[in-house]
Design brief:
Low-confidence stretches: none
Structural class: alpha+beta
Strand order of the largest sheet: 1-4-12-16-17
Strand content: 25-35%
Distance between the termini: 14 Å
Number of domains: 2
Helix content: 10-25%
Number of helices: 6
Shape: globular
Number of strands: 17
Amino acid sequence: MTLVLPPGPLGPPGPAQYDWLFHFTGRPVGLAATPSLPGNIRDLHPAARLDNILWEERLRGFPPFSRPPVTSPMLSFAESPLPHVQWLIGQRQWPSWALVVSRQHIYDLGGGPALHARTPLYNTLSDEQRAWAVRLETNSISRSDWLHEREWRLPVPPDQPWLDLSPYPRPTPAAAVLLGDPNWQPSTRLAPFRTGRFFNGETGEEVAGDHPNAHPYMEQRWALPRIWPGLLKLYYNPQTGEIVPLAG
């Protein structure tokens, strides 16, 4: 797929790496969701979650699974080349719905690969460190092996636990969406639009736009999310097992 890379110091990816990170909006059937995920989000279909993300222009983070629990909210992504994403969906039954952002952007914000730690090391980690960690241990009693997820994490502030996807004043960090339906698009909702007219914030009278107390008149219109038109649309074709770009 063709996407414009942001500038940055990360080296070029090798064949097992990728310049783009996938934030899947669902989990495979049978895998428990992160306990900190609210029920009103957990119970949504992955497509509905993606719809809300596009409209809110926020990718929300939550404390990841950990024993004992941690409180630091994190965002999770998969750094997977397209053949591996196709394998995750086709063989591991990951829902084919995701938001795609650049690896460099997440790195610039303080993100990085998750730490996969054996139990002796995991048990020595602080709460803050365990927010980055995934236990790696397999034996005859239990299995904790999540290396195939190729996870990156991004810490977000507890008082604002999200990644801002707004296209203003800077371009949105969202680059693409992965869809499980080639005909899907977000819901249309009432959204405010500028009319080109202004009113005096003190008197309510209509004024020119350069008036010191000018405020724009807004009107509600049915619309798609602001960031939707600029996103590359990708589709996972279950018949071929391939990810292909969609026209438009």
